[in-house]
What we know:
Layout (H helix, E strand, L loop, with lengths): L4 H30 L6 E6 L5 E6 L2 H26 L5 H26 L11 H21 L9 E3 L14 E6 L2 H24 L3 H20 L2 E7 L2 E6 L5 E5 L3 E9 L1 H5 L3 E4 L5 E4 L3 E8 L4 E5 L3 H16 L1
Parallel strand pairs: 10-12
Antiparallel strand pairs: 1-2, 3-8, 4-5, 5-6, 6-7, 8-11, 9-10, 11-12
Amino acid sequence: MAVDLARVRSRFTLVALILPAIVVAAAVVIQALALPSLPGVVATHWGFDGTPDGFSPAWTVPVFTAVLGLGLPAVLFGVAFRSLRRGEHGAAYRLLGAVALGVAVLLSTLMTWTLVLQVGGADAQLPALVVVSSLLAGVAVGAVGWMLQPHAPWHPVATHTPDALPLAPGERVLWTQAVTVAPAGRVVLASAVALTVAVAVMVAVLTASTWATLLAGAIAVLLAIMVVASSRFHVRVDADGLTATSAVGWPRVAVPVADIVSAEVVNVSPMAEFGGWGLRWGPGGSLGVVLRAGEGIRVQRTNGRSVTVTVDDAATATALLAALAARRSA
């Protein structure tokens, strides 16, 4: 059944951009109407026990609601829509739309509720119910956003399966290539690292918890290391099979010749198939070293799972893998 790409794009735009804008606009209006009844300075950050420990001018709350509530969905929309216009689709894009809407609802609900609680100079203590309810509202509306978008799974199609290269008995062969993450992937990965670092800095500045600061910092450092380690891979095909090794030595993906059932050249979409760039897991337990869109090697393993590696000259590597597997079977 053909996918209605126009409907996929229009529903994604509705869920990821239009509905978040409506939600945020409503929240900002409510906050603006409440400003005359608020003190000049209000609580804007709370400790784990609900006691306020950070304060800002009241007018900053609607400003930050607008900036964050519109900015985050706009970033997610921008990441995805260019690829959707090229004809890509799939669960990853549907999830991005749902997340954009859910984040807008979460931020709008939480920031509006915490502001309205302080109308008339009331106690700024933050009840746990406010946080829990805001989270549940974000998840629930995000789920609605998922359902509003059509089910349009991505079905990758092999471009071709090259004939096995002729190999003489005992002949030793080697094929190597290097692949670097594409500019689009670099932007997305760098943005994720920058956002994590920003969160870590905010935790350090706004909280007095050493453990929370250390945890947020450790997460930021770990993510940065993973991004660097997944930015460039060396791909090798030899008598041992297929190997893709990070330029820093780890991670490393290896498929022995004895484990290869078949090999084919495929046209890979990182977002549609794997939900992003780098070392990724896809549907059915498939594994991908996907640093860019375009041609790649896909190897079917004896356990029924597949390994995909995006790399130039994939046809030669695939033909060589087929020859090595056939020689071993013989």
